[in-house]
């Protein structure tokens, strides 16, 4: 289906060129036309050249995608320069927004070109698979920057990405200290303890029938307790430092792991179990050679769920008392000081660490449970 | 009946065996008053319609099910003891290979549980994979193999225990007829080569007559033995034997037995 996108994708280049031409006729800002700011013409020029190359079929397929990408990159740099130019912030006009629309059309062109790669060739499809979401993400950030600066949105409502980037440069050591306090000292120990405990208890529960009947419903009850209720209690019990945050993380991660492991350990089919029985296998022989491998997909599911839960838990718990460091502490105090760009920078750190944690677990899962049906679909 | 006349020893000895499952609607009599002796080197097939308890009987021999009355000895001891001595290999209806293990690791699974050293495990696994014509597939994973190949791996796995007795529960039931014919021939060669005692469950009359030295015809609910038919076709039989008059005569007798068993039933 993607292989047929070639011609509609090419037709996107035509409106891109048309919109660029329209943009040049319209005013660039409230007071200026494009030609009064000669350097700005570089942008529309780059877009027009790229679109023209695609329309004239000089650049087709993936080559067209790269040409579009080059056009967009040049155009975006120029656009960012325009909105940041002195006295232009908050004053750009229709001509500028038409030009941004043309950039968007070219982004579309390049992304649809790279999306077809998988069905066309086998070499390096992985890189292209990462390229498409990468382009999309960067384009969203550029758009965010252009809109916020171009319309002059107050930084309290939404700071521009460039302002958030400044926080990373100027307060890098503070963000690093927060990351260390929250992720390294609270999330990781809590995550490890909660998951290990959940797993071990699950192994016992799976063996003892009355625990399976009695403990699991109770577990669901406890997992329904809101974290904002449990966090202050943990602070009372374990003090202000990381121990109370780790305790919250333990509580949040324990039950997903318990429930998933119990389900996973009973996943083996009757025939698989009979087979072990016919060999006169002892309990632990059967456990390590049959039940545990069958439970692994469920265990990894719990780990992935818990990786996000743990970070949320630790950050929220820091709202209820903490030493003067930590991501949750930073968010709550910087909101009070109206320093929203610092809040956003902290959110970015949280998002990055959360998704890389998740990504690592997903990679490990692929390695360990490669045999599972969910990973074989792509192979057959 | 020609039981106990030969000088070969009795591997499975069943007397007056019954089995009732307790269900919500009261007991279900799966097996009733079964008498059966299986001697060393025999190829005995249990045949009957679905629900006649032929699989249950095989599972009682394997100690995967416990009888409620009567007596059963496997290799002269109770089934549980026989199971713990690893005195049989069991081939299930589906291959039940563990997908996280390679073919070789699957075949050597029972040896691993028995605590055999690694070199020996490898050697035996290779040997039995060769016996089922799967040389060169040892490093593949089960899901990379066809259904027929998977079942052959599971037969190699059952053989790797090196037990005297092989219990097979409709092992080819899920395969297409061409594959099935092929595997029937291979199994017969295997039986001749290894001189194992095989108890084989099926509901296919041609399969039963083609493979067996003796056919036990069973009736449904409660499962009883209706007829025991000696099957004296030549030992090195090939598929063509199925057109011979002897073959058709035995098949006819099996069919008659199955029909008489059915007449007791309403359905």
Structure description:
- The complex is a heterodimer of chains A (380) and B (267).
- With 380 residues, chain A is an all-alpha fold.
- Chain A folds into two domains: 152 residues; 208 residues, Orthogonal Bundle (MetI-like fold), CATH 1.10.3720.10.
- Chain A is 77% helix and 0% strand.
- In chain A, helix 7 packs across helix 15 and helix 8 packs antiparallel against helix 13.
- Chain A is flat.
- The N terminus of chain A is likely disordered.
- In chain B, helix 5 packs across helix 6 and helix 8 crosses helix 9.
- In chain B, a hairpin with a 4-residue loop joins strand 8 and strand 9.
- Chain B folds into two domains: 178 residues, 3-Layer(aba) Sandwich (Rossmann fold); 65 residues, no CATH class.
- The two termini of chain B are 31 Å apart.
- In chain B, the strands form two sheets. In chain B, strands 5-6-7-3-8-9 form a six-stranded mixed sheet, sandwiched between helices.
- Chain B is α/β, with parallel strands linked by helices and 267 residues long.
- Chains A and B meet through helix 12 and helix 13 of A and strand 5 and helix 4 of B.
Provide keyphrases for this structure.
heterodimer; A: 380 residues; mainly alpha; MetI-like fold; 2 domains; 16 helices; disordered N terminus; B: 267 residues; alpha/beta; Rossmann fold; six-stranded mixed beta sheet; three-stranded antiparallel beta sheet; 9 helices; globular
Query: Distance between the terminal alpha carbons of chain B, to the nearest Å?
Result: 31 Å
State the CATH superfamily name of the largest domain in chain A.
MetI-like
Total DSSP helices of chain B: 9
Q: Beta-strand percentage of chain B?
A: 25-35%
Q: How many independent structural domains of chain A?
A: 2
User: How many helices of chain A does DSSP assign?
Assistant: 16
CATH architecture of the largest domain in chain B: 3-Layer(aba) Sandwich
Number of separate structural domains of chain B: 2
Q: What is the H/E order of chain A?
A: HHHHHHHHHHHHHHHH
Q: How many beta-strand segments of chain B?
A: 9
Q: Do you know the CATH architecture of the largest domain in chain A?
A: Orthogonal Bundle
CATH class descriptor of the largest domain in chain A:
Mainly Alpha
Helix proportion range of chain A: over 70%
